[in-house]
């Protein structure tokens, strides 16, 4: 009978030890669940920031395209103004030549 009590006591001890092991496992699972939840919150924040950054990058791209278009328009206007200035310069040079020629003829007219 004594031997039976020892076996039962050893069995109870093993069951208690196993129960303690499962309690430790349960605590570890709880801790992992909490850490996973914290990581999910952080991942959601990073995801939201990524979405915000993507929107800002798209906004910058639109502004860059508008600036590029404006620069092209300004460049075309500058080229047109340059061509106009060359035309004016050519006309001024022609008028200068005509004025010199006319002045020369006036000198000749006065002399005779």
Automatic annotation (TrEMBL):
The name on file for this protein is Methyl-accepting chemotaxis protein (MCP) signalling domain-containing protein
Q: Which organism is it from?
A: Alkalihalophilus marmarensis DSM 21297
């Amino acid at each position: 009978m004594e031997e039976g009590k020892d076996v039962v006591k050893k069995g109870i001890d093993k069951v208690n030890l196993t129960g303690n092991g499962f309690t430790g496992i349960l605590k570890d699972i709880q801790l992992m669940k909490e850490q996973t939840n914290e990581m999910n919150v952080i991942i959601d924040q990073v995801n939201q920031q990524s979405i915000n950054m993507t929107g800002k990058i798209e906004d910058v791209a639109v502004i860059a395209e508008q600036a590029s278009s404006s620069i092209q328009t300004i460049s075309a206007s500058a080229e047109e103004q340059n061509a106009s200035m060359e035309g004016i310069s050519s006309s001024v040079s022609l008028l200068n030549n005509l004025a010199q020629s006319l002045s020369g003829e006036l000198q000749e007219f006065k002399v005779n």
